[in-house]
User: What shape does this take?
Amino acid sequence: MTQATEIFERLKEDHDRHRDLIDKLLDTSGESEERKELFTELTKELKAHAAAEEQALYSTMLRKPPTTDETRHSVAEHHELDEALNDLAATDMSEGGWLTKFKTFAHDYRHHIDEEEEEHFPDFENYLEDDDMKHMRQVFERRKKEEKAEAEVTPEKKEDAKE
Assistant: This one.
């Protein structure tokens, strides 16, 4: 396994965990404790993962001109997904509208990680050097741990979000 493959496998492990949490959430109903707990866990996981991924991977890829557009695209999607999570947190879980919003979020998130795994990661691998790998390994786990410890559910309706 190359160092680049190792980094991308680590990111995919997180993505698989996120897919599992989404599936579990889709099996919940109403404003149950299980739904609240799973949503909180998913929110903290996603916020920590995105922050760590941006600092470790995307900051590296922004310095490589051939991958700048892909990188900006993914970071923009992180922002959109974060707004959607905040909007979900501000929506009453007992209403049918919450599940509808969550299904849209789940679809958008799956699209995002599929695109990363199938298109971006293989492309990025072509431009990464040993020093990049060392940096990403050191930064990702440290940053994810720090971010997860501080991550919280932040209710904010989409229409109230700052541009």
